[in-house]
Each structure stands twice: as C-alpha cells, then as structure tokens.
Amino acid sequence: PSSGTAAAPDAPAVPGGAAPTTAATDAASERVLIDTPSVDGSIRLVGARLDDLKLKDYRVTVDPESPEVRLLSPTGTELPYFVESGWIAGAGIPKPDTNTLWTLESGEMLAPGSPITLAYDTGEGVVYRRTIEVDDHYLFTVKQTVENNTDAAITLYPYSRVQRRGTGDLAGFFILHEGYIGVFGDEGLVQTGYHKLEDDRVQEMPAA
After folding, report:
1. Cβ(20)–Cβ(78) under 8 Å?
2. Considering the entire predicted model, what is its pTM?
C-alpha cells in the first residue's frame, strides 16, 4: 500500500461514545486517507465506502486533547454511519457491490486539489471508475463512469445512500424529538419516535 492507505479506524463512533471494536473483516480492508483543513478520515476500498470521517476543529469535550467529533463510522463499530454509492443493473450484467474490492487507480491521499480515482475491472469487459474530490471544508464531489468493452449494450442506474444503524444515547429531554420526521400528503407533519419503531418494526406512510 502507498503512504495514503491505512488500516480501519478505531475511534469513538459518536461524541461522548465509547471506543468501539472494529470487526476483523473491516480491519483487514485497505483504506485511502482523507485530509483537509476541516476533516480527516479514510475511505474503505472494500465497497468504496466513505465510512470514516472526523471534524478537526471540534472535540468531544472542552478538553483540547479529547477525541475529534466523529461524523461517520464503519460497520463493525458500535454505531455504523456511512455513505455508499452503487449501481442497479439487470440480470447478467457484472457490477460492483458492497463486498467488491476496488483498486486505487490514481492519487495517493484524498485532499483539496488532490482527487483520487478508484477502479473495479469486472474481468468481463466492464470497468467501473469513481473519482472523488474534496474541498477545504466538507464538500465531497463524486463522479462515476462505466467503460463497456463488450459487444452488447448495458443499462445501469446509479444510486447513493446514507445509512445510520442504531440509535445511540437518547437524551430523554421533553422538548427534543428523536426519531424520523417528515411531511406526507394530507397528513402533514409526521413524527415517530425510536421506541415506536422498535415496537412496530414496520411503519406505513400515508399516501400522498
């Protein structure tokens, strides 16, 4: 690995949280480091997932030596919170998934003015690339391309999502809503707490 790669992180998942233990499969994965004036962290090459990000200028406590406030955490930690992108394709079209190991095609470390490009060659004539840029603050720009070297046309649909697992430490403060919130059709504002979600498991939203 180049100087821009690192092992999986082992740090608090949320402000004030205990240091989690990273799963062995995640700890073994290679990573590309991220370093800007505002944030630091890494990108996991398995799944090309942004799942390790901390705020340089903010600490968990007023102690300047306390850990940086963590925004994103990988799977295998106490409270996984990550961003991932991918492709939806028809049957028979080779594509990467969450377990795909991408290679660092260009760049060494993601920093302002120093983008990186990740690549995955399916070995079946289709090559996926993902170029990632970051500014001095918090803005990440991701450009995805697909190179089709086969004789057949392929149709792909890109997607991106943010996943957060677990509820963390609930404050239990009466003016604070903890749960999902949204506005749905004639029903208007809908607020449901985490406890109701845990009990009911499935929530059906009113039709728009």
Report:
1. yes
2. 0.73
Distances (CA, A) of 181 to 142, 172, 205: 28, 17, 11
Which DSSP state fits 77? S
Q: Is 95 helix (H, G, I), strand (E, B) or coil?
A: coil
- What are the angstrom distances between the C-alpha of 143 and each of 42, 92, 118? 18, 24, 10
The pLDDT tens digits of the residues spanning 32-87 come to 999 999 999 999 999 999 999 999 999 999 998 999 999 999 998 988 999 999 99
* Amino acid occupying residue 153: A
Q: Which residue has the tokens 């102690």?
A: 63
**Distances 82 to 52, 60, 164 between C-alpha atoms, Å:** 7, 20, 7
- Specify the DSSP class assigned to residue 176: -
Core vs surface per residue 69-96: b (16+ CB within 10 A) or e: bbbbbbbbbbbbbbbbbbbeeeeebebb
Question: Contact, 59 vs 134, CB < 8 A?
Answer: no
Nearest to 50 by CA among 107, 94, 116, 124: 116
